[in-house]
Amino acid sequence: MKGNKNWWISLILFTVVLASLGAQDFGFGDFGFPGSFSDAEDASALSFSGEFGFSSRFFINADDPETGFVETPSSILLRMESSSPASEFSFALRLSPEIVANKPARIIDEATLRTYWGDSVELTVGMAKVVWGKGDSLRILDVVNPQDYSDPFNTDVEGRKIAQALIKVDWRTGMVGKLEAVYVPFFQGDYLPLEGIWAPKAFTDMRAEIWNGFYSGAYGTNHAILSAAGITDPAAATIAASQSAAQADALMEQLLLYPDTKSLEWGQGGLRYTDSFKGVDIGMQYYTGFLRTPVINADPAVLAATQHLVLSYNRYHQIGVDSAFVLGPYNLRAEAAWHQTSDTKGTDPLIRNPFASMVLGVDRNFGAVSLNLQTLGTWITNLDQANNVYDIESTAHELNGTVMGQIGYTMKNGKTEVTLAGAAAIPDLNWMLIPGFTITPVDDVTLSINGYFFGGDSNGQFGQYHARNFLEFKAAYAF
């Protein structure tokens, strides 16, 4: 508790000091005396902005309406920026009940210092979010930052990103050409909810099976000890059940064993070059890092010996290209990448096989009607070699994909929009459907109501949430 208190005090003092540095831009330092800061051409400019969002989600249980419940996710983003001709500093805080209670490290959403060396070189250091690739909401080249999937249906792609401590150099090679180099000294995986309504079904099923195994093993021992002490059933059975459940719960608290990724051997980095030729934007990149979804060793022999599920992350190398251009009335986007892991033969049960991915996207407006379509496809190599039942890809498909789309109709000079969005996972054919209505009464305020409905394979990407259909009312304010 003392450490948390000191952390908050340091954060408040840091913010106050930064605010005082820019106070002269609000007139506090200019009383008409010669040489005041407001007379300097290179004085820093300090600005504040932010966003507030509030939601109410009403979960629907058609079989038993009284068991439905309400969730109220909300957040506020506060951003402060200070800039001069040679530098720019940005500091942002993201606050929500979930972040404050469970993820305090994410309160600092970004903290970056950017300096300009002449007209062609830009250096960025700090906790930053980097955008790579041309994709819309489906992306395969945007690999520098991990994602927070605690709310998997948060459509704010940049808001889901987790800032990383990094060093980045941008070198402009022409009018629009740019070479980017980034180095991230430590690794952080995607944040995946392991409990609660959005926990992946595959993991919750595994947890339930492991808990039952811990309980059964403890029950046999506890019951035998009680019986040897002269305690007979049903008292022995009741006591043994209580003791075994407590022991299983204690083991589950320490079930996951994560690797220590705060060392230089977990460093990542890459290069990206972008340019434009005759109206066609192109990009190419190389990145070496770690796949952000953890690998779990589910071998019962390992679990019995260690009492832990051992997690690891696979090193990979990505080579990718992307393009965006306009063809008549259509806006087209494409990304493609090869991901090379060390399991070239596909025989290592704890290393993902090399795989290729591609994203294609198109959007067009038909007057007041807008259409957006995206598709993501993946080909996994050597799946026929996954003969071990505990191979992490034993149930994977050689070809799989996701198709997403949205059609919208705007009215009232763009102040009102009706939308129908959806997504489907292939080949399992599980799906999600999202009808929506959005109104913008004033420029800074957005009000919306959306429905989220899921179906298909109960173990699939969307179908696993078939019992989590909900209606959401959302209010957002930008300032």
Describe the structure.
The protein is built from six helices and 22 strands. It has helices at 2-21, 97-102, 157-160, 201-228, 235-253, 300-306; strands at residues 45-59, 70-71, 74-84, 87-95, 108-117, 121-128, 164-172, 178-184, 256-257, 268-277, 280-290, 295-297, 309-312, 315-327, 330-340, 355-366, 369-380, 399-411, 416-426, 430-442, 445-455, 470-478. The strands form two sheets. It has an 18-stranded antiparallel β-barrel. The longest helix is centred in the middle third of the chain and has 28 residues, at 201-228. The radius of gyration is 26 Å and the shape is globular. Residues 1-42 have low confidence and may be disordered.
The number of helical runs is 6
Written as H for each helix and E for each strand, in order along the chain, the element string is HEEEEHEEHEEHHEEEEHEEEEEEEEEE
User: How many whole angstroms does the radius of gyration measure?
Assistant: 26 Å
Shape: globular
- The end-to-end span amounts to 34 Å
Structure classification? alpha+beta
Assess the beta-strand content as a share of residues: 35-45%
Mean pLDDT: 88
Point out poorly predicted stretches. Answer: 1-42
The oligomeric state of the chains shown is: single chain
Helix content: 10-25%
